[in-house]
Design brief:
This protein is of the alpha/beta class. 40% of the residues lie in helices and 22% in strands. It has 2 domains: 215 residues, no CATH class; 156 residues, P-loop containing nucleotide triphosphate hydrolases (Rossmann fold), CATH 3.40.50. α14 links the parallel β13 and β14. α3 crosses α7.
Length: 383
Amino acid sequence: MIIYQSTAKEFKNTVDEGRILEAIEDAFRSKLGRGIPPAERGAYTNSLPQMERVVRRAEISDDCGIMIEYKIPLTNFRVDFIVSGVDERGAKNFIIVELKQWSEAVTADGDGLVVETFTGGANRIVPHPSYQALSYKDFISDFNENVANDSIAAFSCAYLHNYEPKKPEPLREERYAQLIESSPLFLRNDQSKLEDYLRKYVKHGKGMDILYEIESGKIKPSKKLVDYVSGMFEGKEEYRLLDAQKVAFERARFVANNTKIGKSAVIIKGGPGTGKSVISLNLLNSLLGDGLNAVFVAPNASFRETLVKKLAGTMPRMRLKNLFMGSSNFVESNPNEFDALIVDEAHRLKQRGAYMYQGVNQVDDVIKAARTAIFFIDDNASR
């Protein structure tokens, strides 16, 4: 869902006339039925004039496309800013720009893709801005059919317009070098470099047609992503299904693939050690291979991280993470947005009042969001 979109010319005029906050407010009310969250108003006021100056000074075509607050399908994530257009060869491109108002940050312990900064009223460990932009790009590339088929190319970067670089600069430490090569980081004194980046990929306009293609692209896992997942299971004996596991797997797969059954829920129960996770992971692999829009859901974040790390092995984990979601992701999902949601440890699903959960009941959220909801429940576990 696109909250706000316009041509580059209209965007520049709206910012120049001091009407951009009003325009986005109107778009929020029209698309979401509510106003701009109070915590985000300052971000728009401070960051969008900075991007208007970049767009203007880059001298890209007036008919380039501008997208603000693009809600990524199948998720609760929203992209700050997108510019679309064609390059000098006529290739269709769009650039995701992650905007931050940070003034400083330090490295943080972890897998090399996180940093620590002051945000939300406290020091917090958060994804590196370049990683955040790159993860959005990879998700759209893996799930939007019009992007996945290579008719549109996606690029990403981060722009920290208030950030004065230090010597040495923590955000550019060697551990982040490969990340920044894939998704460039622009700080306060890098405005001209960001302008060059826009010129390289979108200078020659025709961007509104590209925004339409992004918005209208069918949402399903790309063949590249399906092949990527399938390759992780090949030849691994620990994922072989035995006896009752095979029976439960085949039943759930049949229900998920049989559209005549309509909206369905499958419950698979068993105690510890009965192989529920083996069944659920095999289902994810097989349903993706069947061409279904399927996602693995695990309420416990550390469990998700462990699964992804184990599955990926030496392969990059970033793209695989997009198929493993938390149980709070579906509050705002559209009905039947997914063909199948595979919920491991479903006894851990939350109800109203749980920490950081804004909905009423996560079981209802999952059932609403999926044509087929597959719940794995541990007989001996409590919430």
